[in-house]
Amino acid sequence: MATDLWYGLLPEHLLLGTLLGLMALEMCKVSAALGHTLVRLVLVTAGSVLVRQYTQGYAIDLLPGEIRIDSFALLAKLVIVGGGLVWAFAFAAQATFKSGMLLCSSLLGACVMMDSAGFIPLVLGIEMLSLPAFALMVHGAGASPASEGAFKYLLLSSIASALLMFGIAFSYGATGTMAIDAFAQLAADGSAQGVAATVLIVSGFFFKSAVFPFHGWAPDAYSAVRVHVTGFPASIVKGAVILGLVRILSTVSLSSATVGIIATLTLISILYGNTTAIRQTTFKRMLAYSSIAHAGYMMFAFVDSTGGRVSDLLWYVAIYALTVIVACASFRSLHPGEDDDLQVLDGAFQSRPVAALIFGLAMLTLSGLPPLPGFFAKLFVFRSAIASGYLGPAIVAFVGSFIGVIFYLSLFYRLFATQRSEEKVA
Questions:
Q1: Is position 151 within any domain?
Q2: Which of 132, 287, 298, 403 has a beta carbon 3.0–4.6 Å from 274's, enabling a disulfide?
Q3: Could you tell me if 381 and 316 are in contact, meaning their C-beta atoms sit under 8 angstroms apart?
Q4: Residues 259, 267: contact at Cβ < 8 Å?
Q5: Distance between CA atoms of 22 and 50, rounded to whole angstroms?
Q6: Are residues 320 and 394 in the same domain?
Q7: Of 219, 210, 215, which Cα lies nearest the Cα of 237?
Q8: What whole-number distance in Å separates Cα of residue 10 and Cα of residue 213?
Q9: How far apart are CA 41 and CA 37, in angstroms?
Q10: What is the model's pLDDT at position 201?
Q11: Which residues of the chain have pLDDT under 50?
């Protein structure tokens, strides 16, 4: 048992050990570069451990009803740790001891969420994920709009946690246990208490992932912080929240009432996010509304009843998180300052062709144009929805996706525009 606790949770132990090690290194006043190198090495090691465990088919109930290691947990943690590794490499220049600690803390919380077989570790994990993200928003920002954006994130995240725990209380009252499996049975039976518990829990996750109408915090929070920080909640935190909901509803056949609520809100989120993003003039606010639309696509996968929602969302989260991080990193390379007006992209290909091409490909991937990975991410979700008998909602989601192509292509066009750059030279 002790061996299983060590080996099964080895990635979590590595993250926790790194967190403590970074504290010690900062107290010893060594170079921050050493701490950042340690973070990257540990994330590579944790990813290697997860790959090894998955190829071995490792699966165990470490604490029955509380902690479970299975194929989904391993793959989900691999996606999250991989996203953290890409973020650490992409923004190495902005790394500090504190940012490394906050990154490891947030990744640790995300991994605990993926291991959860009960609601107690799930709630602990989601708070361990969210609170470091709040701290990262204000880290090194001083008295700036970041404080207001982070406060809004913290306040509404607290409301989301309250909704989540209220739903868990409904589930506990009906089942007498905190096990997620018992809730899954309750959610599938269609009873009033089951629907209420499901709607409250899903609403909490909708808040955390900024799905309409629980999206109000995202534009202000994203736009108030620095570009590299924006990439963190928009990719890793959002992806972990989505996968946390998958952990709860992985194979649950939801009642028709619950599916109707989820489908309606996700479709509105897709349409609202894409149409509002078109009107934005700054990169971070555009990314915020884009993330609202993509949260809608990901949550739309929960209408699936064919059993494909797990694989669909693992692919979507992995592709989306990587693309957002790359987009933020390439935008910062194109314009190192904190001015994120989209006009800075005009003619960028002439001065920084490599960064401009990478940014353009990231935008095309987010748009879902074939043959880029984003196309297949959306294709899997739409295919599962159609196979489940939701052709009409899938068509509406596709129309919303087509609207999104408009502003993504406009950003791609800006990179090669010459008129504005010629005007500046004149």
A1: no
A2: 403
A3: yes
A4: no
A5: 23
A6: yes
A7: 210
A8: 38
A9: 6
A10: 87
A11: 142-143, 420-426
What is the model's pLDDT at position 140?
55
Q: Are residues 278 and 424 in the same domain?
A: yes
DSSP state of 301: G
Pick the last residue of a domain from 83, 113, 140. Answer: 140
Residues 132 and 272 in one domain: no
Kindly state whether residues 23 and 129 are assigned to the same domain: yes
What amino acid is encoded at 310 in this protein?
V
Q: Are residues 327 and 423 in the same domain?
A: yes
CA distance 199 to 2: 38
Q: Give the largest CA-CA distance in the chain.
A: 74
Q: At a CB cut-off of 8 Å and minimum separation 6, what does 84 contact?
A: 43, 103, 106, 107, 236
The answer as to whether 421 is a domain residue is yes
11 upstream amide cis, omega within 30 of 0? no
Determine the structural domain holding residue 101 and report its residue range.
Answer: 1-140
Question: Can you tell me whether residue 29 is helix, strand or coil?
Answer: coil
Q: Which of 105, 140, 175 is the last residue of a domain?
A: 140
Calculate ∠ Cα 225-201-66, nearest 5°: 100
Shortest CA distance to 316 belongs to which of 346, 344, 294? Answer: 294
Cα→Cα distances 370→5, 311, 333, 375, 398, Å: 44, 20, 26, 5, 14
Which residues are CB-neighbours of 252 under 8 A, at least 6 positions away?
184, 187, 188
Structure tokens at 162: 């309250």
pLDDT in tens, 199-211: 888 888 888 888 8
Q: Are residues 309 and 383 in the same domain?
A: yes
**H or E element: which one contains 363?**
helix 353-367
Closest to 287 measured CA to CA, from 342, 333, 242, 240: 342
Q: Please tell me the predicted confidence (pLDDT) of residue 144.
A: 58
- Same domain as 261, residue 115: no
134 and 43 in one domain? Answer: yes
Total length of the chain = 426
Q: Residue 151 has what pLDDT?
A: 74
For the chain, what is the domain count? 2
Residue 220 lies in a domain: yes
**Do 374 and 365 touch, CB atoms closer than 8 A?**
yes
Can you count the helices (H) and strands (E) in the chain?
Answer: 20, 2
Which residue is listed with tokens 């990901």?
298
3-state SS assignment for residue 138? helix
**Residue 1 within any structural domain of the chain:** yes
